[in-house]
Design a protein that fits this description.
Function: Catalyzes the oxidation of glucose 6-phosphate to 6-phosphogluconolactone.
Keywords: Carbohydrate metabolism, Glucose metabolism, NADP, Oxidoreductase
Binding site for substrate: 208, 212, 246, 265, 368
Shape: globular
EC number: 1.1.1.49
Binding site for NADP(+): 70, 178
Radius of gyration: 25 Å
Number of helices: 15
Length: 515
């Protein structure tokens, strides 16, 4: 007999099976405490996500948003900021009645991170909300703050007992935004610090790419169908290309970006997570621990380039044109040193040392000021071992491809050869194109909607653990060491990166897919 769930009133719902995922998952009464609530992330992503979740009926009646920032504000000031942020950036249609229900549950505590009195007030506010809003001691702390501020905030949460599940009488969780350190050593120190204050099961390291529907669809595509998995190996796959292209520059992020670069900013987290999902073995169940175990096996099996100078490329954009508009070069961006050697483009050839992927190269590239914004995974299949057609009839035939578009225009494209109508046997590539926006009536939730909801529910499936983070740095640190003292290759804004990236694939008879 299946286990039955207990409702908020303490009764048992005999019709609800916890394994039935068709019913909406709604958290227990709780508070979401956002540190750095006046920053871009909170205003553009987190507060709109809270409204969208409320609009979809996925938040409990006893739910509170508690903002913390260095402002001399009352609840009314924060309500105004939250209203403007949600109204401007919400994904779902605006409904005043939804906001009216939320507004009474929006609170603010002002103070700096080293202000003991402010954290004492925060702790008292959470205690008061237990009675006034019935949150039962449940709270998630979202660190929408620079990593340098993590230690002092964690120590304050430890000092006040706010991180203690037993003392609070409910659950206490922490959400940590990337970057998870800047190398392996700093990542270990950060992981140890967070795991020391909170229990390991209550730490959620957020990678917003894993909240995207199309990223989760990689697992559905592979493991819910028998069509692709038999071909998902070195016998049929020639190579895999993972592309994350951005048409924008660094904007106002010069302070962070110039000390990080493309490899630390997106390769270490987003792109290696995509690689792990594409290459992992089928888990025994759709359980968080099982999925993370399979991803970790892939990350540990990554084979680094034997010669980083041949199989990696770093680039830096010069002035050029993107989408018909003039774009300045990286050195002309505000806050960037004129002699900076930070890369804004990176391309790397990696291997995976296991039976499934032996000898299959994984080409990963990411860059800014490229012709257009696109993130995709392309599985490039081997050509048929024998083609009975005339060579001239196949000039337009390339490799079969399965392309998973993560953003924008989310969907899946299957490219294969077909006869051209006419009196001759001419064969060329055509595409079958599935788009989320056309196939489903409900639009995909924004990544932060899914991830915030998962935190409040306690579902860690889409969150990398400490071992994954540290193993990813084991890939990046040797590359960064090999790049020491080198200068990135120049490319003009609006181009698909440096010429050396094309030559890297060209030496092996391959070419980048035109994204």
């Amino acid at each position: 007999m299946s286990q039955r769930t207990t409702g908020q009133g303490g009764g048992v719902n005999p019709l609800r099976d916890p394994q039935d995922r068709r019913l909406p998952r709604i958290p227990e009464p709780c508070a979401l405490v956002i540190f750095g609530v006046t920053g871009d992330l909170a205003r553009k992503k987190l507060l709109p996500a809270v409204y969208d979740l409320a609009n979809r009926g996925l938040l409990p009646p006893g739910f509170v948003v508690l903002g913390f920032a260095r402002r001399d504000w009352g609840d009314g000031d924060f309500e105004s900021l939250a209203y403007e942020a949600a109204r401007k950036h919400a994904r779902t249609p605006w409904r005043d009645e939804v906001w009216a229900r939320l507004i009474g549950n929006v609170k603010f505590v002002g103070g700096s991170f080293d202000d003991d009195a402010a954290f004492d007030r925060l702790a008292q506010t959470l205690d008061d909300l237990r009675d006034s809003h019935g949150i039962q001691g449940n709270a998630a702390f979202y660190f929408s703050i620079p990593p340098a501020a993590f230690p002092v905030v964690l120590k304050q949460l430890a000092r006040t007992g706010m991180a203690d599940n037993a003392k609070s009488g409910g659950w206490r969780r922490v959400v940590v935004e990337k970057p998870f350190g800047h190398d392996l050593q700093s990542a270990k120190e950060l992981n140890d610090l967070v795991d020391d204050v909170f229990t390991r099961e209550d730490v959620f390291r957020i990678d917003h790419y894993l909240g995207k529907e199309t990223v989760q669809n990689i697992m559905a595509l592979r493991f819910a169908n028998n069509l692709f998995e038999p071909l998902w190996n070195s016998k049929y796959v020639d190579s895999v290309q993972i592309t994350m292209a951005e048409d924008v520059g660094i904007g106002s992020r010069a302070g962070f970006y110039d000390s990080a670069g493309a490899a630390r900013d997106v390769l270490q987290n987003h792109l290696l997570q995509l690689l792990a999902l594409v290459a992992m073995e089928e888990p025994t169940s759709f359980d968080a621990a099982e999925i993370r175990a399979e991803k970790l096996k892939v990350l540990r099996a990554i084979k680094l380039p034997q010669d980083p100078h041949l199989d990696t490329v770093r680039g830096q954009y010069l002035a050029g044109w993107v989408a018909g508009e003039r774009a300045v070069g990286y050195h002309e961006e505000e806050g960037v040193p004129p002699d900076s050697t930070t890369e804004t483009y990176v391309a790397v050839k990696l291997g995976i040392q296991n039976r499934r992927w032996a000898e299959v190269p994984f080409y990963i590239r990411a860059g800014k000021r490229l012709p257009r914004r696109v993130t995709e995974v392309a599985i490039m299949f081997k050509k048929a071992p024998h083609l009975p057609f005339n060579a001239t009839d196949m000039e337009m035939l390339g490799n079969n491809q399965l392309v998973i578009r993560v953003q924008p225009d989310e969907g899946v494209v299957l490219k294969f050869g077909s006869k051209v109508p006419g009196t001759t046997m001419e064969v060329r590539d055509i595409a079958m194109d599935f788009q989320y926006g056309e196939a489903f009536t409900e639009s995909s939730p924004e990544a932060y909607e899914r991830l915030v909801l998962d935190v409040l529910i306690g579902d860690r499936t889409l969150f990398p653990d400490a071992a994954e983070v540290e193993q990813s740095w084991q890939v990046i640190d040797p590359l960064e060491e090999a790049w020491q003292g080198t200068k990135p290759e120049p490319y003009r804004a609006g181009e698909w990166g440096p010429r050396a990236a094309d030559e890297m694939l060209g030496r092996e008879g391959r070419a980048w897919r035109r994204a």
